[in-house]
Design a protein that fits this description.
This protein has 264 residues and is α/β, with parallel strands linked by helices. The protein has a single domain, classed as 3-Layer(aba) Sandwich (Rossmann fold). Helix content is 50%, strand content 14%. A seven-stranded parallel sheet has the order 3-2-1-4-5-6-7, sandwiched between helices. Strand 4, helix 3 and strand 5 form a beta-alpha-beta unit. Helix 1 packs across helix 7. The chain is globular and about 55 Å long. The N and C termini lie far apart (57 Å). The mean pLDDT is 90.
């Protein structure tokens, strides 16, 4: 039986991914800071804080006692946060990087001894990762862009060892993340002293975009394909926002001119 490690496995997307791999005959090690998943055959749930090196090492020891080889590590764990880059609390900024970027670095480094031949590392970033930074979404986009670049670097290095690193860039997924984004935007509207009016207008734009979402099972199916394809792509995309791509392609000066007029 093949085994996979999935971080953030108790989240809205994570639960769908965990269940999909279980249904297709995998043994799944679910790493998450919360322990609220239902007990299922071939599911090993492990409490793990990916921002703590010791916590990730403890999780590795549990997995290594159970199996000597894993087919893939699927890096799903992440947090969505919105903020003003000039007003943000510095600890909040650092913590977001710890979760969205450094956590994946820790997991992939520590679990490396179990990859073996033809092992795969799946890194889930965002459709926003390669796009130009948007106001108030800058913190999230910065961390996902850095994660995307990390995946490129890791792919170049691990390809020398026969290990494939695959980037997945999903658009809006119908999970609790959308509710979280709304909560984040509401909080920012209340918190910001510099941009209270601008953030409210940006909130309306965000809602119109995030409403065009897909069920998490579609992403789960794509991740399963990435793990099992004989010749996987380096980058998979799903539910990409057409308007976001067009807007991001505009010259920066013109883009900022439009934003200033839309959000003022």
């Amino acid at each position: 039986m093949q085994s996979v490690v999935i971080t953030g496995g108790n989240g809205g997307i994570g639960s769908a991914v965990v269940n999909y791999f279980l249904q297709n005959g995998y043994r799944v090690f679910c790493l998450d800071i919360t322990q609220n998943c239902e007990k299922q055959e071939n599911l090993i749930s492990i409490a793990c804080d990916i921002t703590s090196e010791q916590s990730v090492k403890n999780a590795f020891e549990i997995v290594a006692k159970d199996t000597s080889e894993i087919s893939a590590v699927i890096n799903l764990a992440g947090v969505y946060r919105m903020d003003s880059l000039i007003e943000i609390d510095f600890e909040r900024l650092k913590n977001t990087y710890d979760i969205n970027l450094f956590g994946a670095c820790l997991v992939n480094k520590i679990f490396f001894p179990l990859y073996k031949d033809k092992g795969r590392v799946i890194i889930v970033t965002s459709e926003l990762a390669p796009q130009k930074i948007m106001p108030f979404n800058g913190l999230y986009m910065l961390t996902k862009s850095a994660l995307d670049k990390y995946a490129q670097g890791l792919r170049a290095e691990l390809s020398l060892l026969g290990i494939k690193v695959i980037t997945v860039r999903p658009g809006a997924i119908n999970t609790g993340m959308i509710d979280k984004s709304n909560q984040e935007m509401y909080a920012l509207c209340e918190r910001s002293k510099l941009y209270s009016a601008n953030t409210k207008k940006f909130f309306k734009i965000m809602n119109s975009i995030s409403s065009k979402n897909i069920p998490p099972e579609k992403l789960a199916k794509l991740l399963y394909k990435a793990v099992n394809a004989k010749k996987p792509k380096m980058v998979y995309k799903i539910n990409q926002g057409f308007l976001l791509k067009i807007f991001s392609s505009l010259p920066e000066g013109f883009r900022n001119f439009l934003l200033k007029n839309i959000l003022k």
